[in-house]
Amino acid sequence: MDSRFTNPAAPPWLPFESRRRARDEKREAVLRTAVQLFLEQGYHRVTLNEVAERLNITKPALYNYFRGKDEILFECWSMGAELVDSVIAEIDAGGGSGIVKLRKLVHAYAEVMAIDFGASIVRFDVRDLTNRNARIARAAKKRIDATFRAYITAGIADGSIKRCDAKLAAFAIAGSLNWIGHWYQRDGALSPGEIADEFTVRLTEGLAAKPAQGHTTTKTAPVARTATREARRKATGKKRGGASR
Amino acid sequence: MDSRFTNPAAPPWLPFESRRRARDEKREAVLRTAVQLFLEQGYHRVTLNEVAERLNITKPALYNYFRGKDEILFECWSMGAELVDSVIAEIDAGGGSGIVKLRKLVHAYAEVMAIDFGASIVRFDVRDLTNRNARIARAAKKRIDATFRAYITAGIADGSIKRCDAKLAAFAIAGSLNWIGHWYQRDGALSPGEIADEFTVRLTEGLAAKPAQGHTTTKTAPVARTATREARRKATGKKRGGASR
Amino acid sequence: MDSRFTNPAAPPWLPFESRRRARDEKREAVLRTAVQLFLEQGYHRVTLNEVAERLNITKPALYNYFRGKDEILFECWSMGAELVDSVIAEIDAGGGSGIVKLRKLVHAYAEVMAIDFGASIVRFDVRDLTNRNARIARAAKKRIDATFRAYITAGIADGSIKRCDAKLAAFAIAGSLNWIGHWYQRDGALSPGEIADEFTVRLTEGLAAKPAQGHTTTKTAPVARTATREARRKATGKKRGGASR
Amino acid sequence: MDSRFTNPAAPPWLPFESRRRARDEKREAVLRTAVQLFLEQGYHRVTLNEVAERLNITKPALYNYFRGKDEILFECWSMGAELVDSVIAEIDAGGGSGIVKLRKLVHAYAEVMAIDFGASIVRFDVRDLTNRNARIARAAKKRIDATFRAYITAGIADGSIKRCDAKLAAFAIAGSLNWIGHWYQRDGALSPGEIADEFTVRLTEGLAAKPAQGHTTTKTAPVARTATREARRKATGKKRGGASR
DNA sequence: GATGAATGAGTGTTCATTCAT
DNA sequence: GATGAATGAACACTCATTCAT
Q1: Rg value, chain C, Cα
Q2: What is the pTM assigned to this prediction?
Q3: CATH 1.10.357.10 fits D76-221, yes or no
Q4: Is the shortest CB-to-strand distance from B51 to strand F under 7 Å?
Q5: Is the CB of C47 under 7 A from strand E?
């Protein structure tokens, strides 16, 4: 049971705690609404008024949580980047040959593309960001690309992947996956899982030295949608989250 | 001296002809400049002033050739779509099994992605177009997708391609190719031809029932960059080219 | 333990008294911070957030002491006006010929201009005030001007000042003095006293019927910086101090 | 008679000439309206809409002539500075002892203060300008101050002015004069000429080694209100006039 | 055909002020 | 008495588009 009710000596900072939680919840609500609108209509066609209206607040209220429109964009983007980062971290933590890791990545990445925040990684235009944030975004994208390439290179080294141009192979795979973010629709015929399964086969069958024996092993845990936002909370208290103009 | 004055028998329609040609040349110059800027900076960040400045004319002068900014966008997009259309027409005119046609398409499409107008097909946002033009654009995109799918289906039927989900396979291939339009840079390490060659192998090796014996056969004639714009000329004289707001 | 609880006979108004004193102290702290910022950056460029931040409180807290930004401005201005008023009162209380009184006023006024609150009289824009407060401010300014003029007129009458246009002479002198408020800097080469001494000579030497024999007599007591704010306290408890919008 | 009508071979650039003249006239009309409003209500209380409305144009039309509100402010200020500059140039071109030059300057400066553009020098807040323009403005102010001081110093050297602290004397005089810009009203009892005459006597009688014998010599030509704006025209064609953000 | 000038509509952002807690 | 959150009102600035010349 909530200690606020069981413990009469509940520390006085609890209200602050709950207030902060409320704040964080609202902040994320803004991001969820914003990312949806941005994907739906495109960043430049969405006005802050629309975002606010959909949240039943007024435009300036948004400025309690973000420094400006472009920061909202960046934070949406960041949410997506975190999804990918946690996926990669998990795969790196596990073991397996190059091809196995690559398959895991393809599968998880495909699923991420079916999430709003995930799609935002590839659908938002980094040129809409602050220079500083654009640099961060570009760096993150490069890291992801590098991971694809690294797995392929590792696979070639350990014999699980056929000799090929790792760079172009990575581009080909990442391109296919990124494109999901452009055509996937929640109400479409295919579920994210089905898409991920099929792409995992399709995109790696040409690369594998030997056909995969079983697919179950390629699956990772479902994408962590609740990636901890602790670090962010402080950073964005009132300053640009790791970002400045 | 100008033959119009020295040769009284000169056909009177020549000046008009040459004047029309001059007009068309300027029109295309606008499109070439525009597509470049749009790709470089993004449609919404480019002002008509910038386009005009780069052409050493003034903003209102653009309105002699186009009804508005979005029409310029559409015409750029159209130029790209024509490239693909002519590619497909050529492939369809030729013969070959499903896998052969698919390889031809992959190769040619990859090359198109390395051309400004080609990239515009996948980098421009159809929501920036007039409703009518957006419909045209979406239809064209669907036709392209359908072509990929048709070749795969044909390949499965004729035994040149392994049994698979044609729809997702087409998405996977098209996605890889479309992504080229996002990362290709003219001054990069890879030439369009090299990229096309590699992608042709990479994107079809998993699909082919048997490995390809030779690659030279997959090549089509170089993409026709000078697709006739005759039809367009009339249409856009002063009315929206097959389009209205 | 708090004496309110241990000593039942403690006069009940003491806490109120001390509380009120604390309130007044905070109020004045706000004014001191505000006047400084207003002079430093200009009224319109200073936000209440800045004022609050510098005081380590929050913006709405300011509204416990003042009705709004313009009231803060007015109170700052009032502090300065009181300085001048007390100066004039003192001079009037003393005796002396017109020129003597004028010299006293010039000297004291020059010193006031070197105080933040004093400078605010001439550097703040009365149009930033409420209509009502603006009227008060304008009236006060007129009274000051009238005093200069009165001393000059008196001096002409008593023969201590040469015949001249009293109005323009007053403007000339007041202008010189007011300008001090614009250029004086605390860390400059000249001390307020030195400036006052020099200006006393400079601004009156052309007027005096005969040169002054000694300067020490022109000095008044140092400007009373602790002019009682008692009357104000009640007035501004929560109502606008003699002012309403 | 206008050569456009008398000379049939009038060069084709005349239309441009007249168009440019029209442009310049409008530009100055904007400045005249703006300076009036700025003085009347204060820079921050004047919206560009008000300026535009009074000119019977719309707000964005102003941006054909100026880069922004602050540039309008700066250009107003500049007009005033030019008045003073031309005054000083004229005095420097003439001869005379220190006291004579000083008297000329006082007289002319007093008159400038009665002109809108002149008053703007001392009534506008340089902190409302771009950093770059603020620097320019501050430098100009310093130059003016230095001129006062230089004349006084010269006067002391040539024996026409009594020994005194030139710096403070300059401040005293300039202050008196600057203050005119704050209190002068076109419809007041005193004409600029009368004020100038009186201030010339008042502000210098204390300084002169011997009383002035005649006043007519202190007068300069009436302030050149038509200071050539040639240089400016080019500079502000579309770029900030000698200014950038 | 081309231009300078003007416009209308829109948008992000700021800030004094209020209010529930 | 103090705070975090929210709001309303305002404002400068941009830009595609039009029009008279």
Answers
A1: 21
A2: 0.86
A3: yes
A4: no
A5: yes
